[in-house]
């Protein structure tokens, strides 16, 4: 009976692993197929005529691909760095310092967590338009450079942070801000790593904000570029799959290196 | 002396908070007030922007708008099916993974792949699989099941998105469950075993009740996420919500009114508020419901 139970559990696990993998394997295999084979609608996972042409061709057909890649990198990296700094600074002030207005600011940050993005998206568009920030990096970066969820997370982290370290630093004559940047922040590395991954992925995969803010193809990010590429080459699924694979790779590489922080970060956002 | 120290501390605090306050004021609080203003005006963006006060017209208009009704109906249908399914799937997967089998880590990494991949890429992969002559139909045919024109038939297009999103979101919630499962004390299971409980009993009478707060969190997150469905519908239908409005969601409709047609930006703002209220109501109902249940 025990053995039967174990076999059942393994069956569930393996079946679901197959269900998860198939779309990716199918996309990967399609990216190595010729257009002829794509059109014929055959369903073999091993390409009949294995070809790398699609990967070369997408960069010839659409010379903006490297540009889109660079835009995505610039925006995601900047947004991540700024979030790490600003969320930690805010979280620290809310956790450790005493000042008038602290409760109000904290309540506002909690309230922001509840407001759906659709409410602010239209006025934000008008504000960015007024600032002349549509179709610009700063239009993508500045509104996204803080995140209420992670301010809250950093506050929780700093509340449990040992006070003695800061007191020692103060005795050595370090200012509060100096203590924060030189003593506290370096010790917050695990919390920062989890945060970095989620902010980076959020920005890298974001579709709606760039769709609204960016209309100049030169400034497109990858998801947006990919969508417009699909519009132009709708039946060239070999190209579309090749492009999809190229742009999934960076995230997979990051995941391979940092996967333990992913789990930590998720269980944290899980209210623990 | 004392008060000078306090002033200094407040100065430090506001310095550290200044980037946050700047963004909050300019891109969150300001826009909320602005959105309220917009929802009571007719907005024209040709040339310079002009705003004409129209009272509650934008809100009453929602009631006469057939497309708004279709969008709401599609969204509610989507939420009602996706949230329970992905929650149960996540729980079952997490419990299975947590059973102490070998290779847990491998399965966890595999299951997590969809969570990492961008919605744009996932939607494109699924569009390719849903092709008339594509993988999904071939598999259905192999098992002797009926095939569908997934992308073109209004009666199945939304289901195609549901399947895709259950598949891609369940693993994320699985990880949340997994973290909580590891906290359940072994003594609870041992006590159940002494009472003669089998594996199913243990899952149903120990695991599920213990995880109730987590389930509540997962359902609320699921509600918020599903009510805001946009990317997949947009890419699937090329922004139209087609075929025949079958994949039109509330957020897609808001987007269309705000940015794709003239003079309806104020109406879009009103719709956005209506959506916010629907989401608040749904999460409130969920909270109330799970609280009443826990009385037993």
TrEMBL record, chain A:
**What CDD domains is this protein classified in?**
TM_PBP2 (cd06261)
Q: Which Pfam families match?
A: BPD_transp_1
**What is the superkingdom listed in this entry's lineage?**
Bacteria
The ABC transmembrane type-1 domain extends over 69-258
Asked whether the keyword Transcription is assigned, the reply is: no
Where is the protein situated, by its record's location annotation? Cell membrane
List all membrane-crossing ranges: 7-28, 73-94, 106-128, 140-158, 179-201, 236-258
Going by the UniProt record, its keywords in alphabetical order are: Cell membrane, Membrane, Transmembrane, Transmembrane helix, Transport
Q: Name one GO cellular component term.
A: plasma membrane
In terms of SUPFAM superfamilies, this protein maps to: MetI-like
| Broad class of where this protein is predominantly found | membrane
Q: Which GO terms describe its biological process?
A: transmembrane transport
Q: Could you tell me the membrane topology recorded for this protein?
A: Multi-pass membrane protein
Q: Which InterPro entries match?
A: MetI-like, MetI-like_sf
Q: What PANTHER family does the record tag this protein with? A: ABC TRANSPORTER PERMEASE PROTEIN MG189-RELATED, ABC TRANSPORTER PERMEASE PROTEIN MG189-RELATED-RELATED
Q: What family is this protein classified in?
A: Belongs to the binding-protein-dependent transport system permease family.
UniProt protein name: Carbohydrate ABC transporter permease
This protein's species is Anoxybacillus flavithermus
UniProtKB/TrEMBL annotation, chain B:
Record PANTHER family = ABC TRANSPORTER PERMEASE PROTEIN, INNER MEMBRANE ABC TRANSPORTER PERMEASE PROTEIN YCJO
Extract the Pfam families matched here: BPD_transp_1
The record's InterPro entries line, in alphabetical order, gives: ABC_transporter_permease (IPR051393), MetI-like (IPR000515), MetI-like_sf (IPR035906)
Q: What is its main location?
A: membrane
Name-wise, this protein is Sugar ABC transporter permease
Q: Which GO terms describe its biological process?
A: transmembrane transport
Q: Which compartment or compartments is the protein found in? A: Cell membrane
* Cellular component aspect of the GO annotation: plasma membrane
In this chain the ABC transmembrane type-1 domain maps to 72-286
Q: Which organism is it from?
A: Anoxybacillus flavithermus
Keywords for this protein = Cell membrane, Membrane, Transmembrane, Transmembrane helix, Transport
Q: Which residues cross the membrane?
A: 21-40, 78-97, 109-129, 158-180, 210-230, 265-285
**Its topology with respect to the membrane?**
Multi-pass membrane protein
The family line of this record is: Belongs to the binding-protein-dependent transport system permease family.
């Amino acid at each position: 009976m025990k053995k039967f139970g174990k076999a059942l559990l393994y069956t569930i696990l393996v079946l679901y692993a197959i269900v998860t993998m198939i779309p990716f394997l199918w996309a990967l295999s399609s990216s190595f197929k010729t257009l002829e084979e794509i059109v014929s609608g055959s369903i073999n996972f091993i390409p009949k005529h294995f070809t790398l042409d699609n990967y070369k061709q997408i960069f010839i057909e659409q010379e903006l691909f490297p540009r889109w890649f660079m835009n995505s990198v610039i925006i995601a990296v900047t947004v991540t760095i700024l979030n790490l700094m600003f969320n930690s600074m805010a979280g620290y002030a809310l956790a450790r310092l005493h000042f008038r207005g602290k409760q109000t600011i904290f309540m506002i940050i909690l309230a922001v967590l509840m407001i759906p993005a659709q409410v602010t998206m239209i006025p934000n568009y008008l504000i960015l338009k007024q600032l002349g920030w549509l179709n610009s990096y700063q239009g993508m970066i500045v509104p996204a450079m803080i995140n209420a969820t992670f301010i809250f997370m950093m506050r929780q982290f700093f509340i449990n942070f040992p006070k003695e370290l800061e007191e020692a630093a103060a005795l050595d004559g370090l200012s509060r801000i100096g203590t924060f940047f030189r003593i506290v922040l370096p010790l917050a590395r695990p919390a920062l790593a989890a945060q970095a991954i989620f902010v980076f992925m959020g920005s890298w995969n974001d579709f709606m904000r760039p769709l609204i803010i960016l209309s100049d193809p030169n400034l497109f990010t990858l998801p947006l570029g990919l969508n417009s590429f699909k519009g132009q080459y709708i039946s060239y699924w070999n190209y579309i799959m090749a492009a999809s694979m190229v742009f999934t790779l960076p995230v997979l590489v990051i995941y391979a290196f940092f996967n333990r922080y992913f789990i930590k970060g998720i269980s944290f956002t899980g209210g623990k | 002396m004392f008060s000078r120290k306090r002033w200094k501390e407040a100065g430090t605090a506001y310095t550290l908070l200044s980037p946050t306050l700047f963004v909050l004021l300019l891109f969150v609080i300001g826009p909320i007030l602005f959105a309220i203003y917009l929802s009571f005006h007719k907005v024209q963006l040709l040339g310079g922007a002009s705003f004409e006060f129209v009272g509650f017209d934008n809100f009453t208009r929602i009631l006469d708008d057939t497309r708004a009704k279709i969008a709401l109906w599609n969204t509610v249908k989507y939420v009602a099916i996706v949230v329970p399914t992905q929650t149960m799937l996540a729980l079952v997967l997490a419990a299975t993974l947590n059973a102490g089998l070998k290779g847990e880590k491998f399965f966890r990494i595999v299951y997590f792949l969809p969570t990492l991949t961008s919605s744009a890429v996932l939607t494109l992969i699924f569009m390719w699989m849903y092709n008339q002559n594509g993988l999904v139909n071939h598999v259905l045919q192999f098992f002797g099941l009926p095939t569908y024109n997934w992308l073109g038939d209004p009666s199945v297009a939304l289901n195609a998105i549901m399947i895709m999103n259950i598949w891609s979101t369940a693993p994320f919630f699985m990880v949340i469950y997994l973290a909580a499962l590891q906290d359940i004390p072994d003594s609870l299971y041992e006590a159940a075993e002494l009472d003669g409980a089998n594996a199913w009993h243990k899952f149903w009478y120990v695991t599920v009740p213990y995880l109730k707060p987590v389930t509540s969190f997962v359902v609320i997150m699921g509600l918020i996420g599903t009510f805001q469905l946009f990317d997949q519908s947009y890419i699937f239908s090329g922004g139209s919500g087609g075929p025949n409005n079958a994949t039109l969601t509330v957020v897609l409709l808001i987007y269309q009114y705000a940015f794709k047609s003239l003079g309806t930006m104020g109406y879009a703002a009103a719709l956005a508020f209506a959506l916010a209220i629907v989401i608040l109501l749904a999460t409130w109902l969920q909270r109330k419901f799970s609280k009443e249940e826990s009385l037993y």
